[in-house]
Amino acid sequence: MKINRKLIENIQCFEKVIGYDFKNKDYILEALTHSSYSNENKRFNFNERFEFLGDSVLGVVVSDYLFRSEQNLPEGELTKLRANIVCEESLNEVATNINLGDYMLLGKGEEATGGRQRISILADATEAVIAAIYLDGGFECARDFILKFMGDIIQDTRKGNIFRDYKTHLQELLQSRGENNIWYNLIEEKGPDHNKRFVMEVGINDDVLGVGEGKSKKEAEQLAARAGLKKIR
């Protein structure tokens, strides 16, 4: 794939941020390319296949780390810890910390509607970056990246310092203020059956407090609740 000077400069800037130089620039170019950009330009592969691989690599790295670090925990507790680490929220936090949205290739429509800040896009792209590093440098390089940029998330989760049940938190906060008419509403389903995305909104009475998008209705509700918490705090 031919990469022009502007794309090379974009990749080089991103490499400095993450501290990794790609031998094969095509890997990171594909990881940074959203389907909307690919559809408009007709010559770039986009990052959905990389997301699939990156998700698996991330799961193995975190599972291995927890298995070695939490030797007294049973399988069920290890599974809960991993779920709290390997989630859209954590991946979005990593993406935010490395300014991933600034380096992504997005279509004009996606760009205009805030795609560079969209949690689902950033989380998926983070998985794609992990895959690109894995393909380019091998498992140890991918592991180093994950532990470097997710280290604080992993340690906070192990200590129980990360709160993930935003729905319960929001409900308790609103009820403490005398608000009991809390509702969730599915406003959109999109994508093919094998890769559905759900958009939920949460509100009280006639007011919408937040909107969230996730891979399941439950995840979308949690992210909507998180948005609601930010609005009312």
From TrEMBL:
The principal location of this protein is cytoplasm
Kindly give the InterPro entries that the UniProt entry links to this protein. Answer: dsRBD_dom, RNase_III, RNase_III_dom, RNase_III_sf
Residues of the active site: D55, E127
- UniProt-annotated location(s): Cytoplasm
Pfam families in the cross-refs: dsrm, Ribonucleas_3_3
Question: Quick check: keyword Ligase in the entry?
Answer: no
Q: Which reaction does it catalyse?
A: Endonucleolytic cleavage to 5'-phosphomonoester
Give the main EC class. hydrolase
**Alphabetized PROSITE patterns for the sequence:** DS_RBD, RNASE_3_1, RNASE_3_2
A GO molecular function for this record?
ribonuclease III activity
Q: Which domain of life is it from?
A: Bacteria
Record bears the keyword Cell cycle: no
Q: Where is the RNase III domain?
A: 11-138
Q: Which UniProt keywords apply?
A: Cytoplasm, Endonuclease, Hydrolase, Magnesium, Metal-binding, mRNA processing, Nuclease, RNA-binding, rRNA processing, rRNA-binding, tRNA processing
Q: What is its EC number?
A: 3.1.26.3
Q: Which portions of this protein are annotated as coiled-coil regions?
A: none
Q: Which residues form the DRBM domain?
A: 165-233
Obligatory cofactor(s): Mg(2+)
State where Mg(2+) binds: E51, D124, E127
The UniProt family comment states:
Belongs to the ribonuclease III family.
Q: How does it assemble?
A: Homodimer.
Function as written in the Swiss-Prot or TrEMBL entry? Digests double-stranded RNA. Involved in the processing of primary rRNA transcript to yield the immediate precursors to the large and small rRNAs (23S and 16S). Processes some mRNAs, and tRNAs when they are encoded in the rRNA operon. Processes pre-crRNA and tracrRNA of type II CRISPR loci if present in the organism.
What protein is this chain from?
Answer: Ribonuclease 3
Species in which this protein is naturally found: Metaclostridioides mangenotii
